[in-house]
Specification:
This protein is 39% helix and 11% strand. It has 10 helices and 7 strands. The longest helix is centred in the first third of the chain and has 21 residues, at 2-22. It comes from Lacibacter sediminis.
Length: 279
Amino acid sequence: MPELKEIATQLRRDIVRMVHACQSGHPGGSLGCTEYMTALYFKVMKHNPAFTMDAPGEDLFFLSNGHISPIFYATLARSGYFPAAELATFRKLNSRLQGHPTTHEHLPGVRIASGSLGQGLSVAIGAAYTKKLNKENTVVYSLHGDGELQEGQNWEAIMFAAHNKMDNLIATVDWNGQQIDGPTKKVLSLGDLKGKFEAFGWETLIIEDGNDMDQMVAGLEKAKTFVGKGKPIVNLMKTEMGKGIDFMEGSHEWHGIAPNDDQLAKALAQLGETSLGDY
């Protein structure tokens, strides 16, 4: 899938340039989720950049781990929600592109303020419930960090979704094993994550390499085959934090720091230029 891979490369260039320019932000998780966001917005999800909040007849996406806003904003811009040049305003005063997504800025593509971890799944379930009541043949997607699952609200939502047969919901967990303080196994182990979701009544799928575009597209398409079959669906997506830039890969230290000038130059050289062009 060369076109999708080129888009992913450009999104990674956008991420590191955005975070470098303001010397603030979260590059690690953003880089790790690039294939997911590319596959979702450019291949799998039914959406319209002529944005409305309720989007009747469209699929919806909710970003729960809002600190990875760089990949969210870059994806929205490159898929036509707003001009890519606006990415240069990331985290600046009076910008619509705040460090965590907000709704009061009225940025097209953003439906919830996120970043206070553990809340996004509840909102996604509410949206999925509404789509069901409206008898829409659409899907609600959500993305969550694995460390985020240490928040108890998630597990209340997970119970609710299964009990109410929210089978138009496809949640994805960025299962990179890292969080701001270190490996999730050391900070607060999630144990048998697959077994937990299955025990809670979810259709539970694993994407072994969420940084492989072919696997990512296939995983999302497979998840869609379970829509309408009585269970909410979750993809446990194995990724690598900082993917695509060798000195960032696999390290929780890049959860929330910006590259300096030399590191930016190295990152961009590793990624290479694309036909899409930098903003």
